[in-house]
Write a structure and sequence with these properties.
four-stranded mixed sheet, 7 helices, elongated
């Protein structure tokens, strides 16, 4: 809960870098642009990251774990650039002293003694209330920076529109920039087999989900469960609440328990991280789910209310035989790679897996998306997207099924009235979805039809429709 008490800094830097002031508010001028070009030219031999944060709050993370926080808005009238080597405190300086300061900060002329800033250097000109500046690199410190083994470093930037994404090459260092999506969205999805060209009212019969995406979710402890991505990319975090229900072929009669699906419903809360890499055309989605299956999920209540509301529907018979209460712990991973990516066309291949007490399966898939759309794998530029977006999509998957709790019951609670035997489960199941999405300034509507092959011996093909509402907050 500590993360909610103290707001996280806008930029976290834990690698050798130079921080410019020219992108701060009221600092956008031709003179500052010229300064930025001069600084980049002077520092080019050192192959360090040059950062121009849009926010004034910057946190420098040293190799010993200590943190130094600086407010650039207070320093901008005193200095032109801040140098940081990960060993010592960040060094503010003027352009006129930059070459000498950078030499002491990022190169070695002696390997025996610590380096002190020469008299008259800009560090001694720091304001009285500024953090004291420490000495420069020791011999051991220099070996850390110039070692041959690659060192993974990362920077988290909350403002996706501040500067374009870029790949950087530095000697002995792998630059990793994870750009955090600042946009917030709320989504509402309703799925039902009534939303088809012929009503089936069987198997997967209804689903409701609520999704919230927001940048503050990156600070939750559950983010530690998400897989890291070791390349420059954009990331978005979201949470999803899902309630799904399943029924036999005919809910108007009591279950026969022969060649049929058991009643089941579940409710879970998921935490999701979506990473898009526009350079490698890769999209990584991983999700951790926690919930329960069984009577405490309001599946029986919701379906009974719906059927009693509409006079053409009969009250469902047999919910008392549903899968008994058990815990849901699941981890899902999906990796997509572009085969074709053009402005109005995307064709991508996917590999995905689910492991846990609800579903355990793995599969391959393919996705086609065509129309006026934001880049599916992200963009390297900060170009503003079109207000109107509309596209068609189609996705097909083939999955190898190891376990399905909605058919076989929970992993821990075996006290079920009826389940399908493991030997009768279809081990290869295919599913497809096609639909359209229309958005205006981030808010929009998505309509889709879903098709599913038989999930067990003597089972039937199934289909249902989906309606999703997306709101930009």
């Amino acid at each position: 809960m500590k993360n909610f008490v103290s707001p996280a800094p806008a930029v976290v830097i834990d690698h050798p870098a130079a921080v410019l002031f020219n992108s701060l508010p009221e600092n956008h001028s031709s003179a500052n642009a010229v300064k930025g070009n001069i600084i980049e030219k002077i520092l080019s031999p050192y192959h360090i990251a040059i950062i121009a944060p849009k926010s004034g709050n910057v946190e420098f993370l040293k190799q010993d774990g200590r943190k130094v926080q600086l407010d650039l808005l207070k320093l901008r009238s005193h200095y032109d650039v801040i140098l940081f080597n990960t060993i010592n405190d960040p060094i503010p300086c003027f352009i006129k002293d930059l070459r000498k300061t950078a030499t002491h900060c990022f190169t070695a002329t002696s390997v025996n003694e610590p380096r002190n800033i020469p008299p008259g250097n800009t560090v001694n000109a720091a304001p009285a209330n500024n953090t004291a500046i420490q000495t420069f690199l020791t011999a051991d410190s220099l070996q850390l920076i110039h070692r041959k083994k690659n060192r993974n470093i990362s920077i988290i930037v909350t403002d996706v529109s501040s500067v374009p994404l870029s790949m950087r090459n530095m000697n002995g260092i792998q630059w990793v920039e994870n750009r955090l999506d600042k946009n917030s969205y709320f989504g509402l999805t309703f799925e039902n087999d009534l939303i088809t060209y012929n009503n089936t009212d069987r198997y997967f019969t209804n689903g409701v989900s609520f999704t919230l995406q927001a940048p503050w979710m990156s600070r939750l402890r559950s983010s530690q469960l998400m897989l890291p991505y070791r390349h420059t990319s954009a990331v978005a975090y979201s949470m999803i609440l899902v309630q799904n229900m399943y029924t036999p072929k005919d809910t108007r009669i009591a279950p026969t328990f022969i060649d049929d699906r058991p009643y089941s419903s579940y409710l879970y809360l998921g935490y999701r991280k979506t990473t898009t890499d526009p350079f490698r055309k890769v999209r990584l989605t991983n999700e951790a789910d926690l919930g329960y299956i069984g009577p405490y999920s309001p599946g029986a209540y919701l379906q009974t209310i719906v059927h009693e509301t509409f006079p053409t529907n009969d009250k469902p018979q047999g919910w008392e035989t549903q899968i008994r209460t058990d815990i849901i712990l699941n981890y899902n991973l999906k990796v997509e790679k572009a085969i074709i990516q053009k402005e109005n066309l995307v064709l991508a291949a996917a590999v995905q897996t689910k492991a846990g007490t609800l579903y355990s399966q793995a599969g391959l898939g393919i996705r086609l998306q065509a129309g006026r759309q934001s880049p599916y794998f992200g963009s390297v530029s900060d170009k503003k997207q079109d207000a109107w977006q509309y596209f068609f999509f189609m996705e097909s998957n083939a999955n190898v099924i190891a376990y399905d709790a909605t058919l076989e019951g929970g992993v821990f609670n075996k006290d079920n009235i009826f389940t399908i035997k493991s030997s009768n489960i279809s081990r290869l199941v295919g599913n497809s979805e096609c639909g359209i999405q229309v958005r205006y300034k981030g808010t929009g509507l998505e309509l889709a039809q879903h098709y599913l092959s038989p999930e067990y011996k003597h089972g039937l093909w199934h289909k249902w429709g989906r309606i999703s509402l997306i709101f930009k907050l």
